[in-house]
């Protein structure tokens, strides 16, 4: 099966925080808008996260992410589940601290309806994370 983007207009997205609560400039909508001029910018804290609730079951196989250098995460933990179940750990990823699109993250294929990506161990002293692009790819079931 070909790999395709899984995030669509019906995907419910939540984030841990937004810098200065300025949702218009730094909100979650910028994770998927395809613009190099916008980003999700978290507020400070020890770990930041993004959750995605897909409208139907999906099989996640890849994660693409573009951080702002100096505001990335040394460790990304992926958890997922089906509706009504508890989140279970899928994998841990170790991104680089740079501004390049990182597309080499192969994920253990898992069927799920909810995905949580936790960004722990930020490279920023205050724990902020800045993401220009987030891509979740796989197969829609």
Question: What does the radius of gyration come to?
Answer: 14 Å
Mean pLDDT rating? 93
Task: Tell me the strand percentage band.
Answer: over 45%
Form type? globular
Name the CATH homologous superfamily: Galactose-binding domain-like
Low-confidence stretches: none
Q: Give a quick account of the main beta sheet: strands, pairing sense, barrel closure.
A: 8 strands, antiparallel
Helix content: under 10%
Second CATH tier, the architecture: Sandwich
Whole-Å distance between the termini?
Answer: 11 Å
Q: Tell me, what is the CATH class?
A: Mainly Beta
**Number of DSSP-assigned strands:** 8
Class of secondary structure makeup: mainly beta
Enter the CATH topology name: Jelly Rolls
| Helix-strand sequence | EEHEEEEEE
Name the descriptors.
single chain; 141 residues; mainly beta; Jelly Rolls; 8-stranded antiparallel sheet; 8 strands; 3% helix; Nuclear receptor 2C2-associated protein; nucleus; Galactose-bd-like_sf
Q: What would you say about this model in short?
A:
The chain has 141 residues and is mostly beta strands.
Task: Describe the fold and architecture.
The chain is mostly beta strands. It has a single domain (about 5-140), classed as Sandwich (Jelly Rolls). It is about 5% helix and about 55% strand. It has 1 helix and 8 strands. The protein has one helix at about 25; strands at about 5, 10-15, 40, 45-65, 75-80, 90-95, 100-120, 130-140. Strands 1, 2, 3, 4, 5, 6, 7 and 8 form an 8-stranded antiparallel sheet that branches. A hairpin with a 6-residue loop joins strand 5 and strand 6 (about 90-95). The longest helix has 4 residues, at about 25. The radius of gyration is 14 Å and the shape is globular. The model has no long low-confidence stretch (mean pLDDT about 95).
